[in-house]
Amino acid sequence: MFIIRLLISLSVVFLVLGLFFLILVLVQPEWLMARMRARSPEVLYSIDTNRKIVALTIDDGPDETHSIKIMELLEEYQAHATFFLITDRIPGNEAVLEQMIRKGHEIGNHLTEDEPSIQQSLESFEQDLLNSDRILSQYGEIAWMRPGSGWFNEKMLEIIKEHDYQIALGSIYPYDPQINLAWYSAKFVLWKAKPGAVIVLHDYQKRGERTVEALRMILPELTERGYQIVTLSTLVDSQNGSH
To answer: Could you confirm whether 202 is annotated as catalytic?
Structure first.
């Protein structure tokens, strides 16, 4: 009986701990974000500002249908975004990239395939970075990169810096690839929105469709609150007094 009670007690403890860490991941409390920023100051999560300004970032495009719809919504609300693109999805969508540039959006490097970068060897990761850079740099100077699935290590940071990139992650991530509910993404973003935040949403096929739906709720509300919705570079420049 003692062994059974011990096993039950341990199961309860692990369940409680699991729920605690799940809540931390989903809620993304400010103290956790502050610790992440302090641990890797060279990674952009957000900026400190009192201005009502946020950066919108869109991962995993381009998509011939939903990237266009996202841009149409952004134009309606005089908003801009940084699109982190996967270069294997560019062939056939070159006109979409040209439209992004023409409409004042920014392009970021999300490597060549939709896979976790942390699982690659350092050699493979560096080659991936260079291959995607070679394609994206045809459209202009690319300053920002986001590793696949958002995970990185110190060696990866060294490689990224060596090739004149800076990692941008974010401070508002509604887990839209995992939680397939546009209303949840919208409510989460609006709940967590604060000056200097970096919002992460996703494009491409069903994810892009949900982002369009979520932005239909997010953009009018943030605009009504007086927020300016900008690219990452504009956000950082605003902190430096350039805008």
So the answer is: yes
Is residue 59 annotated as a catalytic residue, yes or no?
yes
Model confidence over 94-136: pLDDT tens digits?
A: 999 999 999 999 999 999 999 999 999 999 999 999 999 999 9
SS3 assignment for 7-74: HHHHHHHHHHHHHHHHHHHHHCCHHHHHHHHHHCCCCECCCCCCCCEEEEEEEEECCCCHHHHHHHHH
Q: DSSP letter at 172?
A: B
Three-state DSSP class for 22? helix
pLDDT digits (tens, 9 = 90+) for 24-49: 445 555 655 556 666 778 899 999 99
pTM for the predicted model, two decimal places:
0.87
Q: Which of 66, 105, 110, 202 is catalytic?
A: 202
pLDDT digits 0-9 by tens, 54-78 = 999 999 999 999 999 999 999 999 9
154-162 helix and 122-136 helix, angle to the nearest 10 degrees: 30
Query: Of these residues, 59, 60, 176, 203, which one is catalytic?
Result: 59
Q: Say yes or no to pLDDT of 23 above 60.
A: no
Q: Map tokens 């959006």 to a residue.
A: 105
